């Protein structure tokens, strides 16, 4: 059990790292340091470095439905409330949707239609006119659309939430070490049971043993940061320090694009529900500060697998490809706009990027101690594209791990399975399509440029 006056290191200042710092300081921990590679928060290395993320509680598994409902209450508190927008949530499938998309929509609806919290707030929608009754701004044909409207859901402004919680934690005494040199963790430090230091080359502790304790981390500037407990919350980058994590938590990315709107267009779309068309993609109301309208295609995403079967984000500070999304993703988004807002369908996409996250085959989180570290090193991973919404609650689960000295939930325990080299992405019930490799996207972009020349 970690003593509350003991030094604690949190590696990563994204949603889960900041939530952990918040709940630790709320629980009386007094010596907390966050190590973050970016120069400031929100960090470009966080999956939450973004305009917005969906906040909803529809899950096939009622375990996560209940957790999401609890987190949504957290979004309504004075600390998190400024970043939460309960616009409602439209979920649909088009008349051309594959059966897998329809099946998932029906399961999502079933999971909430009988839930006492949701039942009065759900309306089934059948046909274009039903959808336009709830969202009068839809002007497209909404071809074959069927789905539902959920009033108690919406989105959170993710980048602003990171910034707000960072500032709050700093005001409460949490220390932050940031920057490409001072804040980039390059090596975990260990000592053996006799107390002698042992260097880690990044291969991590020997699995299944307790012969070494993690005593901190070395950063790119050569400085050693020592702690009694180290918590790795590096998201898609976690396996750079703990390679065995990459056996079951895969770095994967999805495309993100935006349309630049005018002030009048932004006002016109204010208040639209977060809209998720299961066979095409999803979008949010436009951001009033930047007037950007964000869209994301739905699919299985892209990995960056090396010769050992390990997928990690590219090591570049600005990973390639830049200001580009794959052609098939662009086509999905164009079709999504033709169905909903055809006046926007041919507008140029701006600020196109790939959002990296840590993915697991069963979409379960991992909140546990790393084997062979004498419970001195914990890892938070496997957000699987549904982790940000839990930000108000997540840190309390980490505090429980530290105080109970074990992960009692089997679903959140460290996995001993090795899935490297196996493409399980299409087996996830809520994703459609086949995964591709990042190198293929870079080749596609190069071919596109050559074709234009």
Can you walk me through this structure?
- With 453 residues, the protein is of the alpha+beta class.
- The chain has helices spanning 15-26, 62-75, 99-113, 128-134, 158-171, 263-269, 327-340, 391-404, 438-452, and strands spanning 8-11, 32-36, 53-55, 84-85, 89-93, 122-126, 146-150, 154-156, 175-178, 185-192, 197-198, 212-219, 224-226, 229-232, 250-260, 274-277, 281-283, 292-297, 302-303, 350-359, 366-369, 377-381, 436-437.
- Strands 5, 6, 7, 15, 16, 17, 18, 19, 20 and 23 form a ten-stranded mixed β-sheet that branches. A six-stranded mixed β-sheet has the order 9-2-1-14-22-21, with helices on one face.
- The chain is globular, with a radius of gyration of 22 Å.
- Mean pLDDT is 90; it is low at 201-209 and 448-453.
DSSP E strands, number:
23
Kindly state the percentage of residues in helix.
10-25%
Unreliable parts: 201-209, 448-453
Largest β sheet strand count, sense and barrel closure: 10 strands, mixed
Derived structural class: alpha+beta
What is the helix tally? 9
Mean pLDDT value:
90
Q: Per the principal axes of the C-alpha atoms, what is the gross shape?
A: globular
Strand content: 15-25%
Give a brief rundown of this model:
The chain is α+β, with helices and mostly antiparallel strands.
Features:
453 residues; alpha+beta; 10-stranded mixed sheet; 6-stranded mixed sheet; 9 helices; 23 strands; globular
Helices and strands in order:
Blueprint lengths: L7 E4 L3 H12 L5 E5 L16 E3 L6 H14 L8 E2 L3 E5 L5 H15 L8 E5 L1 H7 L11 E5 L3 E3 L1 H14 L3 E4 L6 E8 L4 E2 L13 E8 L4 E3 L2 E4 L17 E11 L2 H7 L4 E4 L3 E3 L8 E6 L4 E2 L23 H14 L9 E10 L6 E4 L7 E5 L9 H14 L31 E2 H15 L1
Parallel strand pairs: 1-2, 1-14, 2-9, 5-16, 14-22, 19-23
Antiparallel strand pairs: 3-8, 4-8, 5-7, 6-7, 10-11, 10-12, 12-13, 15-18, 15-19, 15-20, 16-17, 17-18, 21-22
């Amino acid at each position: 059990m970690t003593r509350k006056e003991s030094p604690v290191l949190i590696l990563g200042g994204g949603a889960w790292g900041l939530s952990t710092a918040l709940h630790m300081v709320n629980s009386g921990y007094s010596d907390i340091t966050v190590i973050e590679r970016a120069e400031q928060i929100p960090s470009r290395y966080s999956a939450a470095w973004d305009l917005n993320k969906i906040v909803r509680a529809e899950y096939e598994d009622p375990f996560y439905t209940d957790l999401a409902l609890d987190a949504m209450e957290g979004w309504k508190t004075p600390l998190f409330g400024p970043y939460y927008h309960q616009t409602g949530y439209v979920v649909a499938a088009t008349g051309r949707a594959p059966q897998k998309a329809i099946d998932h929509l029906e399961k999502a609806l079933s999971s909430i239609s009988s839930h006492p919290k949701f039942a009065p707030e759900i309306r089934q929608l059948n046909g274009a006119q039903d959808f336009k009754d709830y969202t009068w701004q839809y002007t497209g044909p909404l071809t074959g659309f069927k789905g539902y409207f959920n009033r108690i859901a919406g989105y959170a402004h993710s980048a602003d939430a990171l910034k707000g919680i960072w500032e709050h934690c700093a005001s409460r005494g949490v220390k932050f070490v940031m920057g490409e040199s001072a804040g980039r963790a390059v090596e975990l430090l260990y000592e053996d049971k006799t107390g002698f230091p042992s260097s880690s080359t990044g291969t991590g502790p020997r699995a299944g043993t307790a012969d070494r304790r993690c005593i901190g981390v070395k950063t790119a500037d050569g400085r050693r940061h020592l702690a009694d407990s180290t918590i790795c919350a590096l998201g898609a980058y976690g396996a750079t320090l703990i390679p065995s994590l990459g056996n079951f938590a895969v770095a994967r990315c999805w495309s993100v694009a935006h349309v630049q709107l005018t002030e009048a267009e932004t006002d016109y779309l204010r208040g639209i529900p977060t809209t998720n068309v299961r066979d095409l993609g999803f979008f949010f109301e436009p951001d009033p500060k930047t007037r950007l309208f964000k869209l994301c295609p739905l699919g299985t995403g892209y990995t960056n697998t090396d010769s050992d079967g390990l997928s990690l984000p590219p090591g570049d500070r600005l990973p390639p490809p830049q200001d580009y999304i794959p052609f098939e993703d662009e086509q999905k988004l164009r079709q999504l706009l033709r169905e909903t807002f055809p006046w926007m369908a041919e507008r140029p996409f701006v600020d196109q990027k790939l959002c990296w996250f840590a993915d697991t085959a069963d979409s379960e989180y991992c909140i546990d101690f790393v084997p062979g570290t004498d419970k001195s090193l914990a890892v938070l991973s496997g957000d699987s594209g549904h982790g940000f919404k839990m930000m108000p609650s997540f840190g309390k689960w980490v505090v429980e791990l530290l105080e109970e000295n074990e992960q009692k939930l089997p679903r959140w325990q460290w996995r001993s399975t090795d899935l490297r080299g196996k493409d399980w992405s299409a087996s996830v019930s809520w994703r459609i399509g086949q995964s591709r490799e990042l190198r293929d996207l870079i080749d596609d972009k190069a071919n596109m440029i050559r074709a234009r020349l």
